[in-house]
């Protein structure tokens, strides 16, 4: 019996990368998964590739309230409920502070912070009503500060405060709210960073692995294993926490 049998799980930004690995893990453990991502076709294709059946892909912009409300409504109607929400969708628009445009600031804060707010608000109605729910937010080690990421680090530290506050408000209704702060995870996002730095993706990964206490970079599956634990009933006495999953990072 999988830990997510009879559970409906929503993962945002799940057409690829960390989100897709998490969707895959929830599906492997028996969950019916809704893949929400900006591109409708990519979301549907990803949902179709998941193990098992009864999954759903929906083109959704997490930073737009009408799109979020429509997607959450469809999940509840078409998959028959909602039990787990993973706020994973994310973008980077890196620049040093003096060059960062207002648009770069707004886009990053909108997707990460407003996106997590809108999705959580839409989900909590169902969670509170049924006295059950799990929210897993995705922060980052960049929350602690990272050159060229004033927008992203502010949003990712914001996610941690948001997580603690929702844990306090929703705890009495049987809802656990936690965050994962990944370190370097090999995905298209980190490949794009490599390109900006003028490095090949493999070289960038090698340099990051060398600097890490466990001498490897993280893989999306490392985050999926953590998300599945936090969203399972085994983690029901854990709430309001941010778990750094970074191989020891800059210890
Ligand atoms: P990724 O490969 O770039 O995947 C992110 C996904 O989110 C993409 O499919 C993207 O769609 C989607 N997305 C972007 N804006 C969206 C929106 N407004 N609404 C819905 N979906 C949207 O990134 P990743 O590396 O898997 O990162 C996933 C999460 O982990 C992010 O929150 C990221 O900040 C966080 N994280 C990553 C790392 C790392 O090292 N990779 C480290 C720490 C934290 P499009 O392609 O269409 O834009």
Description:
- It is a single chain.
- By secondary structure, this protein is of the alpha/beta class.
- It has one domain (8-245): NAD(P)-binding Rossmann-like Domain (Rossmann fold, 3-Layer(aba) Sandwich).
- 47% of the residues lie in helices and 15% in strands.
- It is built from eight helices and seven strands, in the order βαβαβαβαβαβαααβ.
- It has a seven-stranded parallel beta sheet with strand order 3-2-1-4-5-6-7, with helices on both faces.
- Helix 5 (150-170) links the parallel strand 5 and strand 6.
- Helix 1 (17-28) crosses helix 8, helix 3 packs parallel to helix 4 (102-130) and helix 4 runs parallel beside helix 5.
- NADP nicotinamide-adenine-dinucleotide phosphate binds at residues 12-13, 15-19, 37-39, 60-63, 88-91, 111, 115, 138, 140, 182, 184-185, 187-190.
- The site of NADP nicotinamide-adenine-dinucleotide phosphate has 29 residues, from helix 1, helix 4 and helix 6.
Secondary structure elements and their pairing?
Elements: E1 8-12, H1 17-28, E2 32-37, H2 40-49, E3 56-59, H3 65-79, E4 84-87, H4 102-130, E5 133-138, H5 150-170, E6 175-182, H6 188-196, H7 201-210, H8 220-231, E7 242-245
Parallel strand pairs: 1-2, 1-4, 2-3, 4-5, 5-6, 6-7
Helix pairs in contact: 1-8, 3-4, 4-5
The structure holds NADP nicotinamide-adenine-dinucleotide phosphate.
Structural descriptors:
alpha/beta, Rossmann fold, seven-stranded parallel beta sheet, binds NADP nicotinamide-adenine-dinucleotide phosphate, 251 residues
